[in-house]
Write a structure and sequence with these properties.
The complex is a heterodimer of chains A (183) and B (188). Chain A is mostly helical and 183 residues long. In chain A, 77% of the residues lie in helices and 0% in strands. Chain B has 188 residues and is mainly α. Chain B is built from 8 helices and no strands. Chain B is elongated, with a radius of gyration of 19 Å. The chains are: A mainly alpha (183), B mainly alpha (188). At the A-B interface, helix 1 and helix 2 of A face helix 2, helix 3, helix 5 and helix 8 of B. Chain A: This is Anti-sigma factor. Chain A: It comes from Chitinophaga pinensis. Chain A: Keywords: Membrane, Transmembrane, Transmembrane helix. Chain B: It holds the Pfam family Sigma70_r2. Chain B: Belongs to the sigma-70 factor family. ECF subfamily.
Chain lengths: 183, 188
């Protein structure tokens, strides 16, 4: 018999060396690992994708905050804080603009103001805007409301006085004839 | 069509099965397991030496197969790929049990002793019993070479020892098998 007979024997009888396969518990355990109980799936998914979950949460919180900020800004308009003051504003603004238009219709020579001076007469609302901001921050404050109305009344009084002086200098009829002559 | 160990030689069936496994199809995992579990269990049984450890090792190895099958580029090499994962798990199991595969001092390959085997009437049972009582190191080298059909070079790489050490250990293992059989009079 050759010196390799051990190897030859094994190769010739290879199948006889085989034992039956594994018991059923191996697949049962594998199957359990492949299909973990459903109730843990969400937790496992969050665990696996925690970074994505955190990013989505941050985006959601941001969206809610931006929405609330916009809502707050929207409610901070005068019409929402004090509708009656918005009404007064509309009335006085139209009155002031009407007078300004009349003043502008006078020639510079009669008006006696250069372009800078004329601009000064424009509806400058800085004081009023400051009061409006104050009222938005303190809605219902009657003193601020009174100050706003007084501001408009003072402005109207001032413009009325200017118009009165202008009429004295140049009555309306003459002004119109001058205007026609210019045409 | 269900896959079996026999028809897995058919490339298209193997390709289809591997492709289904890559998609996470549990039924495909089951078919793959059915096709290979018996052969792989035998490797585990030979390497670990007992059925309980063999089953545990097989389970670990198949879990790794299922997890990593996405990375398998060539479906045609699935058998060799699974076998290598199983063998690696068996070797890890042995290392955990403090089995070391050390270099032999004499790195010159020993001359194979000419043994008159004419008195030997080998039997499967006698060889199995003799291998079972071999020291872990010898048994591992002998199993990897004679049963799993890896070359001396491949075994050397797996065990991180030299090829000459593998050859020496294999010859010593074979001699040991003969001695055990003679001493125990396993062959009459």
């Amino acid at each position: 018999m050759s010196e390799n007979s051990f190897e030859d024997f094994v190769r010739q009888h290879r199948q006889e060396f085989e034992a039956p396969g594994p018991g059923p518990r191996v697949w049962a355990n594998l199957e359990e690992q492949l299909n973990p109980p459903r109730k843990n799936r969400v937790i496992q998914m969050i665990g696996r994708h925690w970074l994505k979950a955190a990013a989505i949460l941050v985006l959601l919180v941001n969206s809610v905050m931006i929405y609330q900020f916009l809502q707050m800004k929207k409610s901070q308009h005068l019409i929402n804080v004090s509708p009656e003051m918005q009404e007064a504003k509309t009335y006085y603004t139209s009155q002031i603009e009407q007078r300004l238009e009349t003043i502008k219709s006078y020639p510079n020579s009669v008006l006696g103001l250069d372009s800078v001076g004329r601009k000064e007469l424009e509806l400058r609302n800085e004081t009023y805007q400051m009061l409006e901001t104050e009222l938005i921050q303190n809605p219902g404050n009657e003193r601020i409301k009174a100050a706003m109305v007084r501001y408009y009344q003072m402005k109207l009084d001032l413009l009325d006085k200017i118009l009165e002086e202008l009429r004295e200098k140049q009555p309306v009829s003459q002004k119109q004839s001058n205007y026609e002559r210019e045409i | 069509m269900q896959a079996s160990a026999n028809n897995l030689n058919n490339t298209s069936i193997t390709d289809h099965l591997v492709s289904r496994c890559k998609k996470g199809d549990t039924l495909a995992f089951r078919e793959l397991y059915n096709a290979y579990s018996a052969a792989m269990y035998n490797i585990c049984l030979r390497m670990t030496g007992n059925p309980a450890d063999a089953e545990d090792t097989l389970q670990e190895a198949f879990m790794q197969v299922f997890k990593n099958i996405e990375r398998l580029e060539n479906a045609g090499s699935v058998t060799a790929w699974i076998k290598r994962i199983v063998v690696n798990h068996c070797l890890s199991h042995l290392r955990r049990k403090k089995v070391y595969f050390e270099e032999v001092d004499n790195i010159d390959v020993e001359e194979e002793t000419v043994v008159d085997e004419s008195d030997f009437a080998w039997t499967v049972a006698a060889i199995k019993e003799a291998i079972h009582v071999l020291p872990h190191g010898y048994r591992t080298v002998l199993n990897l070479y004679i049963f799993e059909e890896y070359s001396h070079k491949e075994i050397a790489s797996m065990l991180d020892i030299s090829e000459s050490t593998v050859k020496t250990q294999y010859m010593r293992a074979k001699d040991k098998v003969r001695q055990i059989i003679k001493q125990r009079k396993l062959i009459r």
